[in-house]
Amino acid sequence: MQAGTVLDGRYRLIEPIGAGGFGQVWQAHDPRVDRLVAVKVLTSDGSADHDRQVARFTREAAVAGGLSHPHIVTVHDFGSAMHHGRPYAYLVMQLLPGKSLSAALEDAGPMPLSTALYTAACVADALDAAHEAGLTHRDIKPSNIMVQENGEATVVDFGITKGSDARHDITTTGVLIGTPAYMAPEALSGAFDFRSDLYSLGCVLFEMVTGRRPFTGAAWHLINQHLKEPPAPLRTLRPDAPVELERLVARLLAKDPAQRPGSADEVYDLLEEINDRHFGDAPAPSRGSDIASEVWLSPSEATDGAVIPMRLTAHQTCPDCATTGDETKVLDCSTCRGEGRVVAKRHTYKVRVPAGVKNGQKIRLRELGAPGKHGGAPGDLYVTVHVID
User: Which residues are designated catalytic?
Assistant: First the structure.
């Protein structure tokens, strides 16, 4: 593949932006909805292993495509075709801002503690959503986490995710699934569950705070460390880390899964609590709220796609009556006419509706919701489509 190649008659490759598991990742343009996307491409090398790699690609599309969460990459499309006589498969994803956490750590070393806590909380939040859906990621590591400068993080690469459905498991007997530097002891023998992801998150958090992995060395030495040796206490490598953070990392890296936190949601709460207690004067960025709205289309607009102006209105508490707590005064207020709130801001967006939408379909528009706080990303806008004759 090279710049300018058009995949499957639609996606024009612009430039390579990285390499994912079993494939190269390109920035590309999708003219059908006029947006930039990330496209992971797997080109056949003629090996017998190709079918298994395509199966992994297909699973990544099915698994990640079924999860809708602000900290999990959005999958737009999946397909396969021929290019210069060779078969290839491709996965089209949201083009994420920022860089991989592995690149960020390589460039800058240990992260500010509040940023590390927030990044880890984003990952814990994503894992909680995946675990609630019955899925275990199995390959949480810095290169599978995309981060922005403010620490906002998104989890990518669900290609080896394991679910309760047997169709979601492509483990090959005798093949190590995952990345040894970040794998839980039980995962090294193929016994994954959600607590294995928490161990991997502990490894990542340790590296964000200290600038080094909890265990290093050649493959089998590394595996022996995961199985038998305790990691260095966090504060011996980062003395300014809160003692509560050291305790949490120790729990995440417990050899016995039963000694780890009970859920990713619990980890998220603990990270938030530590951040609030020790870095309250500099609040961590927080994402804005999602907003729901509706749009009405003609059948031709639904079939062909359209750009629709959408006016959103933000409100604030009525300054003349709602702050008094007097319900009678609210009802009689001439400023807000009994609503208790007034218009604070109006903004009109031009919303691009893709071709082929159905009546009742909900479209997710990233970062068009309520603004974030302290530098956090805006929420998303969810638009329900109504097709009218």
Answer: 139
